[in-house]
Amino acid sequence: MTIRDESQRKSTGTPGYGQGPSVGAPAVPTPQPRRTIGRFQYFALGFGSIIGSAWVVVLGDWLAAAGPLGACLAFLAGGVLMCLLAAVYAELSSRMPEAGGGFIFAYRVFGVRAGFFVGWFVTLHLAAVAAFEAIVLPWMLQVLFPELKGPALYTLMGEQITLDAVVLGAAGVLLMTFLNYRDVRLAVRFQSVVTYGFLAVAVVALAMASATGSAANIAPLFASGGVSPWWIGAAWIFANTAFFLNGFQAIPQAIEESAPGVSAQTIARVMIASVVIAVLFYCAALLSASMATPWQQLAGVPLATAVAVEHVLPNGLLSRVILLAAAFSLLKTWNSVVLIAARVVMAQARIGLLPETLGRLHPRHATPAAAVLFLGFFSLAGMLLGRGAVLPLVNMASICLAFTFVLACVGALKLR
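User: That's the sequence. What structure does it adopt?
Assistant: C-alpha coordinates below.
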Protein backbone atom coordinates (compact mmCIF):
# COMPACT_ATOMS: atom_id res chain seq x y z
CA MET A 1 0.00 0.00 0.00
CA THR A 2 1.40 3.37 -1.00
CA ILE A 3 1.06 6.66 0.87
CA ARG A 4 -1.45 7.77 -1.78
CA ASP A 5 -3.51 4.61 -1.26
CA GLU A 6 -3.41 5.09 2.49
CA SER A 7 -4.56 8.71 2.28
CA GLN A 8 -7.42 7.64 0.02
CA ARG A 9 -8.34 4.87 2.45
CA LYS A 10 -8.57 7.37 5.31
CA SER A 11 -10.51 9.91 3.28
CA THR A 12 -13.09 7.34 2.21
CA GLY A 13 -13.53 6.09 5.75
CA THR A 14 -12.31 2.56 5.14
CA PRO A 15 -11.99 1.07 8.61
CA GLY A 16 -8.57 0.85 10.12
CA TYR A 17 -7.13 1.14 13.56
CA GLY A 18 -8.48 4.24 15.27
CA GLN A 19 -10.89 4.92 12.37
CA GLY A 20 -14.63 4.99 12.69
CA PRO A 21 -16.69 1.91 11.84
CA SER A 22 -17.69 1.18 8.27
CA VAL A 23 -21.06 2.25 6.88
CA GLY A 24 -23.84 0.09 8.24
CA ALA A 25 -21.82 -1.26 11.16
CA PRO A 26 -23.04 -0.56 14.70
CA ALA A 27 -21.32 2.40 16.33
CA VAL A 28 -18.85 1.00 18.85
CA PRO A 29 -16.68 3.52 20.72
CA THR A 30 -13.01 2.99 19.90
CA PRO A 31 -10.44 3.99 22.56
CA GLN A 32 -8.33 6.92 21.42
CA PRO A 33 -4.82 7.89 22.62
CA ARG A 34 -4.76 10.51 25.34
CA ARG A 35 -3.27 13.71 23.93
CA THR A 36 -1.37 14.92 26.98
CA ILE A 37 2.34 15.14 26.10
CA GLY A 38 3.67 18.72 25.99
CA ARG A 39 6.99 20.12 24.80
CA PHE A 40 8.78 19.81 28.16
CA GLN A 41 7.58 16.24 28.54
CA TYR A 42 8.75 15.48 25.00
CA PHE A 43 12.17 16.85 25.94
CA ALA A 44 12.23 14.61 29.02
CA LEU A 45 11.37 11.69 26.76
CA GLY A 46 14.09 12.51 24.20
CA PHE A 47 16.93 13.62 26.49
CA GLY A 48 16.03 11.00 29.08
CA SER A 49 16.29 8.30 26.43
CA ILE A 50 19.74 9.48 25.32
CA ILE A 51 21.51 9.97 28.65
CA GLY A 52 21.70 6.74 30.59
CA SER A 53 24.78 5.54 32.47
CA ALA A 54 27.46 5.79 29.76
CA TRP A 55 28.75 9.10 31.20
CA VAL A 56 29.79 7.10 34.28
CA VAL A 57 30.39 3.58 33.00
CA VAL A 58 32.53 4.16 29.89
CA LEU A 59 33.95 7.66 30.41
CA GLY A 60 37.32 6.13 31.32
CA ASP A 61 37.43 4.34 27.96
CA TRP A 62 36.69 7.61 26.14
CA LEU A 63 39.59 9.34 27.93
CA ALA A 64 41.95 6.44 27.23
CA ALA A 65 41.05 6.48 23.54
CA ALA A 66 41.34 10.17 22.73
CA GLY A 67 41.97 12.31 25.82
CA PRO A 68 39.49 14.90 27.12
CA LEU A 69 39.52 17.29 24.15
CA GLY A 70 39.75 14.52 21.57
CA ALA A 71 36.69 12.84 23.08
CA CYS A 72 34.80 16.14 23.18
CA LEU A 73 35.58 16.79 19.50
CA ALA A 74 34.32 13.31 18.64
CA PHE A 75 31.04 13.97 20.45
CA LEU A 76 30.64 17.37 18.81
CA ALA A 77 31.15 15.83 15.36
CA GLY A 78 28.78 12.99 16.18
CA GLY A 79 26.27 15.50 17.51
CA VAL A 80 26.22 17.35 14.19
CA LEU A 81 25.50 14.12 12.34
CA MET A 82 22.80 13.08 14.82
CA CYS A 83 21.15 16.51 14.61
CA LEU A 84 20.86 16.03 10.86
CA LEU A 85 19.38 12.60 11.47
CA ALA A 86 16.94 14.09 13.99
CA ALA A 87 15.89 16.58 11.31
CA VAL A 88 15.20 13.64 8.96
CA TYR A 89 13.03 11.96 11.59
CA ALA A 90 11.25 15.27 12.24
CA GLU A 91 10.44 15.65 8.53
CA LEU A 92 9.19 12.09 8.23
CA SER A 93 7.10 12.30 11.40
CA SER A 94 5.46 15.53 10.18
CA ARG A 95 4.49 13.72 6.95
CA MET A 96 3.39 10.56 8.80
CA PRO A 97 2.20 11.54 12.30
CA GLU A 98 1.59 8.00 13.51
CA ALA A 99 2.98 5.91 16.35
CA GLY A 100 5.68 3.55 15.15
CA GLY A 101 8.52 5.85 14.09
CA GLY A 102 11.06 4.11 11.86
CA PHE A 103 8.74 1.17 11.26
CA ILE A 104 5.93 3.41 9.99
CA PHE A 105 8.35 5.37 7.81
CA ALA A 106 9.60 2.17 6.14
CA TYR A 107 6.11 0.71 5.75
CA ARG A 108 4.55 3.82 4.23
CA VAL A 109 7.48 4.59 1.90
CA PHE A 110 8.84 1.16 0.89
CA GLY A 111 5.89 -1.18 1.47
CA VAL A 112 5.02 -4.21 3.55
CA ARG A 113 8.24 -6.21 3.13
CA ALA A 114 10.50 -3.37 4.21
CA GLY A 115 8.09 -2.56 7.01
CA PHE A 116 8.18 -6.16 8.22
CA PHE A 117 11.97 -6.26 8.43
CA VAL A 118 12.32 -2.80 9.95
CA GLY A 119 9.56 -3.55 12.45
CA TRP A 120 11.39 -6.58 13.71
CA PHE A 121 14.76 -4.82 13.68
CA VAL A 122 13.35 -1.99 15.79
CA THR A 123 11.52 -4.40 18.10
CA LEU A 124 14.65 -6.50 18.64
CA HIS A 125 16.70 -3.37 19.26
CA LEU A 126 14.28 -2.04 21.88
CA ALA A 127 13.76 -5.43 23.54
CA ALA A 128 17.55 -5.79 23.78
CA VAL A 129 17.89 -2.36 25.38
CA ALA A 130 15.10 -3.12 27.87
CA ALA A 131 16.84 -6.36 28.85
CA PHE A 132 20.14 -4.46 29.08
CA GLU A 133 18.60 -2.01 31.57
CA ALA A 134 17.18 -4.88 33.63
CA ILE A 135 20.68 -6.38 33.88
CA VAL A 136 22.69 -3.19 34.48
CA LEU A 137 20.46 -1.64 37.18
CA PRO A 138 21.14 -4.42 39.75
CA TRP A 139 24.81 -4.31 38.74
CA MET A 140 25.09 -0.61 39.61
CA LEU A 141 23.15 -1.05 42.84
CA GLN A 142 25.58 -3.80 43.85
CA VAL A 143 28.44 -1.34 43.42
CA LEU A 144 26.62 1.21 45.59
CA PHE A 145 25.46 -1.28 48.20
CA PRO A 146 27.74 -4.36 48.23
CA GLU A 147 25.71 -5.84 51.09
CA LEU A 148 22.83 -6.36 48.65
CA LYS A 149 24.68 -9.11 46.81
CA GLY A 150 22.94 -12.40 47.40
CA PRO A 151 23.82 -16.02 46.70
CA ALA A 152 24.54 -17.21 43.18
CA LEU A 153 21.61 -19.02 41.59
CA TYR A 154 23.28 -20.22 38.39
CA THR A 155 26.07 -19.40 35.92
CA LEU A 156 25.44 -18.41 32.30
CA MET A 157 27.90 -17.19 29.65
CA GLY A 158 30.67 -17.13 32.24
CA GLU A 159 28.82 -14.85 34.69
CA GLN A 160 27.05 -15.70 37.92
CA ILE A 161 23.41 -14.66 38.24
CA THR A 162 22.73 -13.80 41.88
CA LEU A 163 19.45 -13.71 43.78
CA ASP A 164 19.55 -9.92 44.27
CA ALA A 165 20.09 -9.35 40.53
CA VAL A 166 17.02 -11.43 39.72
CA VAL A 167 14.86 -9.76 42.40
CA LEU A 168 15.94 -6.19 41.57
CA GLY A 169 15.73 -6.76 37.82
CA ALA A 170 12.26 -8.29 38.13
CA ALA A 171 11.14 -5.40 40.35
CA GLY A 172 12.33 -2.94 37.70
CA VAL A 173 10.46 -4.81 34.95
CA LEU A 174 7.26 -4.80 37.02
CA LEU A 175 7.58 -1.07 37.74
CA MET A 176 8.12 -0.15 34.08
CA THR A 177 5.29 -2.46 33.00
CA PHE A 178 2.90 -0.94 35.54
CA LEU A 179 3.72 2.67 34.58
CA ASN A 180 3.17 2.08 30.88
CA TYR A 181 0.16 -0.21 31.30
CA ARG A 182 -1.70 2.04 33.71
CA ASP A 183 -1.62 5.44 31.97
CA VAL A 184 0.62 7.28 29.53
CA ARG A 185 0.27 10.33 31.77
CA LEU A 186 1.75 8.36 34.66
CA ALA A 187 4.67 7.13 32.52
CA VAL A 188 5.37 10.62 31.17
CA ARG A 189 5.18 12.26 34.59
CA PHE A 190 7.60 9.67 35.94
CA GLN A 191 9.88 10.38 32.99
CA SER A 192 9.76 14.14 33.59
CA VAL A 193 10.39 13.95 37.34
CA VAL A 194 13.32 11.55 37.01
CA THR A 195 14.84 13.33 33.99
CA TYR A 196 14.74 16.86 35.38
CA GLY A 197 15.72 15.65 38.86
CA PHE A 198 18.65 13.72 37.41
CA LEU A 199 19.74 16.71 35.33
CA ALA A 200 19.72 19.00 38.37
CA VAL A 201 21.71 16.58 40.55
CA ALA A 202 24.21 15.73 37.79
CA VAL A 203 24.86 19.38 36.88
CA VAL A 204 25.48 20.30 40.54
CA ALA A 205 27.79 17.31 40.99
CA LEU A 206 29.80 18.11 37.85
CA ALA A 207 29.99 21.80 38.84
CA MET A 208 31.39 20.81 42.25
CA ALA A 209 33.94 18.56 40.55
CA SER A 210 35.07 21.42 38.30
CA ALA A 211 35.17 23.99 41.11
CA THR A 212 37.34 21.83 43.37
CA GLY A 213 39.61 20.68 40.54
CA SER A 214 42.20 22.35 38.38
CA ALA A 215 42.32 23.17 34.67
CA ALA A 216 45.93 21.97 34.71
CA ASN A 217 44.66 18.39 35.21
CA ILE A 218 43.23 18.40 31.69
CA ALA A 219 46.67 18.63 30.08
CA PRO A 220 47.64 17.08 27.75
CA LEU A 221 44.43 17.68 25.84
CA PHE A 222 44.82 14.63 23.63
CA ALA A 223 45.81 11.05 24.41
CA SER A 224 49.41 10.35 23.51
CA GLY A 225 51.90 7.58 23.97
CA GLY A 226 49.40 4.82 23.28
CA VAL A 227 49.38 2.16 20.59
CA SER A 228 47.24 4.35 18.32
CA PRO A 229 47.16 8.14 17.80
CA TRP A 230 44.39 10.11 19.52
CA TRP A 231 42.43 10.66 16.33
CA ILE A 232 41.97 6.91 15.88
CA GLY A 233 40.38 6.82 19.33
CA ALA A 234 38.28 9.87 18.49
CA ALA A 235 37.09 8.13 15.33
CA TRP A 236 36.04 5.11 17.44
CA ILE A 237 34.05 7.40 19.77
CA PHE A 238 32.53 9.19 16.78
CA ALA A 239 31.46 5.85 15.29
CA ASN A 240 29.70 4.96 18.55
CA THR A 241 27.86 8.25 18.96
CA ALA A 242 24.98 6.67 17.02
CA PHE A 243 24.53 4.51 20.12
CA PHE A 244 25.44 7.07 22.81
CA LEU A 245 23.22 9.78 21.25
CA ASN A 246 20.43 7.40 20.34
CA GLY A 247 17.00 8.08 21.84
CA PHE A 248 15.73 11.28 20.23
CA GLN A 249 13.48 9.12 18.05
CA ALA A 250 11.45 8.34 21.17
CA ILE A 251 9.64 11.62 20.53
CA PRO A 252 7.92 10.77 17.21
CA GLN A 253 6.95 7.37 18.60
CA ALA A 254 4.47 9.15 20.87
CA ILE A 255 3.36 11.75 18.33
CA GLU A 256 -0.26 10.57 18.41
CA GLU A 257 -0.34 11.53 22.10
CA SER A 258 0.92 15.11 21.72
CA ALA A 259 -1.05 17.76 23.58
CA PRO A 260 -3.16 20.25 21.61
CA GLY A 261 -1.00 23.14 20.43
CA VAL A 262 2.19 21.08 20.07
CA SER A 263 3.05 21.53 16.40
CA ALA A 264 5.31 19.50 14.11
CA GLN A 265 7.81 22.37 14.23
CA THR A 266 7.86 22.22 18.02
CA ILE A 267 8.48 18.49 17.96
CA ALA A 268 11.34 18.99 15.46
CA ARG A 269 12.97 21.63 17.67
CA VAL A 270 12.66 19.46 20.76
CA MET A 271 14.23 16.48 18.98
CA ILE A 272 17.25 18.52 17.89
CA ALA A 273 17.51 20.24 21.30
CA SER A 274 17.61 16.88 23.07
CA VAL A 275 20.63 15.85 20.95
CA VAL A 276 22.43 19.19 21.42
CA ILE A 277 22.02 19.22 25.20
CA ALA A 278 23.04 15.56 25.43
CA VAL A 279 26.29 16.37 23.56
CA LEU A 280 26.98 19.30 25.91
CA PHE A 281 26.29 17.06 28.90
CA TYR A 282 28.78 14.42 27.73
CA CYS A 283 31.42 17.09 27.13
CA ALA A 284 30.78 18.61 30.57
CA ALA A 285 31.19 15.18 32.18
CA LEU A 286 34.48 14.60 30.36
CA LEU A 287 35.95 17.99 31.26
CA SER A 288 34.67 18.06 34.86
CA ALA A 289 36.03 14.60 35.65
CA SER A 290 39.37 15.51 34.04
CA MET A 291 39.59 18.69 36.11
CA ALA A 292 38.74 16.91 39.36
CA THR A 293 41.45 14.25 38.86
CA PRO A 294 44.29 14.17 36.30
CA TRP A 295 42.64 12.35 33.42
CA GLN A 296 45.55 9.94 32.89
CA GLN A 297 44.58 8.38 36.25
CA LEU A 298 41.04 7.84 34.96
CA ALA A 299 41.90 6.42 31.53
CA GLY A 300 40.42 2.95 31.20
CA VAL A 301 39.11 2.93 34.79
CA PRO A 302 35.60 1.48 35.33
CA LEU A 303 33.09 4.04 36.67
CA ALA A 304 35.67 6.77 36.05
CA THR A 305 33.34 9.70 36.78
CA ALA A 306 32.62 8.38 40.28
CA VAL A 307 36.33 7.70 40.86
CA ALA A 308 37.25 11.24 39.76
CA VAL A 309 35.12 12.92 42.44
CA GLU A 310 35.78 10.49 45.29
CA HIS A 311 37.94 13.02 47.17
CA VAL A 312 35.68 16.06 46.65
CA LEU A 313 33.44 15.38 49.68
CA PRO A 314 34.21 13.37 52.84
CA ASN A 315 33.71 9.60 52.72
CA GLY A 316 33.34 9.67 48.95
CA LEU A 317 29.85 11.15 49.30
CA LEU A 318 29.85 12.88 45.90
CA SER A 319 30.99 9.66 44.26
CA ARG A 320 28.00 7.83 45.74
CA VAL A 321 25.69 10.64 44.63
CA ILE A 322 26.92 10.27 41.04
CA LEU A 323 26.47 6.50 41.09
CA LEU A 324 22.97 6.90 42.51
CA ALA A 325 22.15 9.50 39.84
CA ALA A 326 23.37 7.10 37.15
CA ALA A 327 21.22 4.31 38.61
CA PHE A 328 18.13 6.54 38.55
CA SER A 329 19.10 7.63 35.05
CA LEU A 330 18.75 4.02 33.95
CA LEU A 331 15.13 4.07 35.12
CA LYS A 332 14.19 6.97 32.86
CA THR A 333 15.94 5.38 29.89
CA TRP A 334 14.22 2.11 30.64
CA ASN A 335 10.81 3.76 30.94
CA SER A 336 11.18 5.51 27.59
CA VAL A 337 12.32 2.29 25.90
CA VAL A 338 9.18 0.48 27.10
CA LEU A 339 7.01 3.39 25.96
CA ILE A 340 8.63 3.38 22.51
CA ALA A 341 8.68 -0.39 22.09
CA ALA A 342 5.00 -0.77 23.01
CA ARG A 343 4.05 1.69 20.29
CA VAL A 344 6.22 -0.04 17.69
CA VAL A 345 4.57 -3.36 18.51
CA MET A 346 1.16 -1.68 18.43
CA ALA A 347 1.90 -0.12 15.02
CA GLN A 348 2.86 -3.52 13.57
CA ALA A 349 -0.30 -5.11 14.94
CA ARG A 350 -2.46 -2.33 13.46
CA ILE A 351 -1.53 -3.33 9.93
CA GLY A 352 -1.60 -7.08 10.49
CA LEU A 353 2.08 -7.94 10.92
CA LEU A 354 1.45 -9.03 14.52
CA PRO A 355 -1.69 -10.40 16.23
CA GLU A 356 -4.49 -7.85 16.34
CA THR A 357 -4.68 -8.02 20.14
CA LEU A 358 -1.29 -6.32 20.43
CA GLY A 359 -2.62 -3.31 18.52
CA ARG A 360 -5.58 -2.52 20.76
CA LEU A 361 -5.73 0.26 23.30
CA HIS A 362 -6.97 -0.58 26.77
CA PRO A 363 -10.64 0.51 26.95
CA ARG A 364 -10.12 2.38 30.25
CA HIS A 365 -6.42 3.30 30.38
CA ALA A 366 -6.06 4.11 26.63
CA THR A 367 -2.62 2.47 26.59
CA PRO A 368 -1.28 -0.33 24.34
CA ALA A 369 -1.70 -2.66 27.32
CA ALA A 370 -1.21 -6.00 25.55
CA ALA A 371 1.96 -4.73 23.85
CA VAL A 372 3.31 -3.51 27.22
CA LEU A 373 2.71 -6.93 28.81
CA PHE A 374 4.30 -8.62 25.80
CA LEU A 375 7.46 -6.54 26.26
CA GLY A 376 7.49 -7.06 30.01
CA PHE A 377 7.62 -10.82 29.44
CA PHE A 378 10.61 -10.54 27.10
CA SER A 379 12.37 -8.12 29.45
CA LEU A 380 12.09 -10.70 32.23
CA ALA A 381 13.44 -13.40 29.94
CA GLY A 382 16.36 -11.20 28.84
CA MET A 383 17.15 -10.19 32.41
CA LEU A 384 17.61 -13.85 33.38
CA LEU A 385 20.52 -14.08 30.91
CA GLY A 386 22.69 -12.02 33.27
CA ARG A 387 25.78 -9.83 32.70
CA GLY A 388 27.24 -12.18 30.11
CA ALA A 389 24.49 -11.07 27.73
CA VAL A 390 25.32 -7.34 27.99
CA LEU A 391 27.80 -7.19 25.10
CA PRO A 392 25.74 -9.37 22.71
CA LEU A 393 22.65 -7.28 23.49
CA VAL A 394 24.51 -4.02 22.80
CA ASN A 395 25.98 -5.38 19.57
CA MET A 396 22.59 -6.56 18.31
CA ALA A 397 20.98 -3.25 19.27
CA SER A 398 23.68 -1.27 17.45
CA ILE A 399 23.31 -3.26 14.23
CA CYS A 400 19.52 -2.89 14.22
CA LEU A 401 19.81 0.81 14.99
CA ALA A 402 22.26 1.53 12.16
CA PHE A 403 20.01 -0.26 9.65
CA THR A 404 16.93 1.78 10.61
CA PHE A 405 18.88 5.07 10.55
CA VAL A 406 20.09 4.46 7.01
CA LEU A 407 16.64 3.44 5.81
CA ALA A 408 15.07 6.57 7.33
CA CYS A 409 17.50 8.79 5.41
CA VAL A 410 16.83 6.92 2.14
CA GLY A 411 13.09 7.18 2.80
CA ALA A 412 13.27 10.96 3.23
CA LEU A 413 15.15 11.29 -0.06
CA LYS A 414 12.64 9.07 -1.85
CA LEU A 415 9.70 11.14 -0.58
CA ARG A 416 11.36 14.33 -1.78
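The chain has a mean pLDDT of 84.
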